[in-house]
Amino acid sequence: MALCGLLRRLPGRRGGRTLATGRPRPGPANVKPLEDVKILDLTRVLAGPFATMNLGDLGAEVIKVERPGSGDDTRTWGPPFVGTESTYFLSVNRNKKSIAIDIKDPSGVKIVKELAAACDVLVENYVPGKLLEMGLGYEDINKVAPHIVYCSITGYGQTGPMSQRAGYDAVASAVSGLMHITGPEDGDPVRPGVAMTDLATGLYAYGAIMAGLLQKYKTGKGLHIDCNLLSSQVACLTQVAANYLIARKEARRWGTAHGSIVPYQAFRTKDGYLVVGAGNDQQFAVVCKILSLPELIDDARFKTNQLRVQNRKELIGILSARFAEGMTTKWLHLFEGSGIPYGPINSMQSVFAEPQVLHNGLVMEMDHPTVGKIAVPGPAVRYSQFPMSEPRPPPLLGQHTEEILRNTLGYDDSAVADLLRRGVVEQHEVK
Q1: Are 76 and 206 members of one domain?
Q2: CATH number for the domain harbouring residue 292
Q3: At 122, phi and psi to the nearest 5?
Q4: Which residue windows are coiled coil (predicted)?
Q5: Would you say residue 193 lies in a domain?
């Protein structure tokens, strides 16, 4: 079986740049970075699917392996549903193909190994040791696909005292300290409104896979990548963690405020909220002038950021009273062009009516095969050297099973029919 993939092709076939010199090779300008790279996706829920979706946006062919009958857990996470499809699943699974395989069946294990041999990357998010029991652990796959970049996404890592625990975003955000620093100043810990620990882990995995592909380009060998929710979120604690590690300063909750910058928080207006930040003394002076409070500029309590932090309660009380006197639109008008960081706290309706959100192309529309036109949040990054092609909608469960067996693995009609008859695989027909 011929191994596929951009990173196993002879240098210069399609253009690009050599890693050694950076000099361009001739080639078409519209080739996506991961065109011809195949990703075998054994993940479900959020962190893994978010990583593989981002890879798919860059041109990779993503083959999503799902359980026959039920598929990815998030297919049932709702309401809301559109027809039979959950909006949760639709949000993170564009640009993928779905093959439904029973990987508890030896024939299913064989298919996954064959797919691994035909792919460049395998991504999985099983509890450590679970795939090993099935014969699909890294060492097992490495034997049949030594070129593979094998990325494992877990809750707490491959080894250690917590490694066998299930990885859920809310729990990992608690253990990592994120919930300790999130919430009202004098209130209970709060879970962020989206699963930021899952999403951060997905982005770490996405970057690590790209690095793994470059390493394979250099060495011709694959490798194992260990990503986990706990490590990702602890790494993202940044200055809060450094405050403790360097100065032994314990963290606390600040609501919308900041522990080291004042003012930098949300202020209630007559009809909503406005977030305003002043990161230096000059910006603070501008804020005071906009609010018609010039006397605060030379007030001995507020002349430096350090003093403003020390006298936070008094300053925030004065500013809050002034902001409460006006409508949000008034303050937006006054702050426009001032150079001060500011913005309203938007509802989802307001977010997707925001001119900059629309200008940045963050609403991606697709025609789904069973529910019609859908819209999901689009990619956050744009590139100058290749176009964003028309996105493919998230797949139905097993929608591409027969196509992958025939075209990727070379199975004939009788072999495919036998697997379907025995329930090793499942095909969903689009009507």
Answers
A1: yes
A2: 3.30.1540.10
A3: -125, 130
A4: none
A5: yes
Q: How many residues does the chain have?
A: 431
Instruction: Please give the residue range of the domain that contains residue 282.
Output: 273-344
C-beta of residue 224 within 8 angstroms of C-beta of residue 209: no
User: Pick the catalytic residue: 57, 105, 198, 298?
Assistant: 198
> Nearest Cα to 51, choosing from 119, 121, 118?
121
Indicate the residue type of 290.
Answer: I
When pLDDT is cut at 50, 70 and 90, the band that residue 17 belongs to is: very low
What's the rounded Cα separation, in Å, for the pair 114 and 122? 12
In a domain, 248, yes or no: no
| Residues contacting residue 293 through CB under 8 Å, at least 6 positions apart | 318, 319, 322
The model's pTM is: 0.90
Same domain, residue pair 134 and 180: yes
In this structure, are residues 64 and 96 in contact, taking their beta carbons and an 8 Å threshold? yes
Residues 143 and 200 in one domain: yes
Q: What is the pLDDT of residues 253-274, one digit of tens each?
A: 999 999 999 999 999 999 999 9
Is 217 among the domain residues? yes
What's the CA gap between 287 and 319, in Å, rounded? Answer: 10
Phi first, then psi, for residue 266 (nearest 5°) are -90, 140
Pairing of strands 363-368, 24-25: unpaired
| Other C-beta atoms lying within 10 Å of the C-beta of residue 153 | 29
Parallel, antiparallel, or unpaired: how do β-strands 372-377 and 425-426 relate? unpaired
Same-domain status, 330 and 278: yes
Is 198 catalytic? The answer is yes
Residues 387-411: tens digit of each pLDDT: 666 789 999 999 999 999 999 999 9
What residues pair up with 361 in beta bridges, in sequence order? none
Burial of 162 (0-12, 13-18, 19+ CB in 10 A): middle
Residue 427: half-sphere exposure toward Cβ, Cα within 13 Å:
17
Render 227-249 in DSSP notation, one character per residue.
EEHHHHHHHTTHHHHHHHHHH--
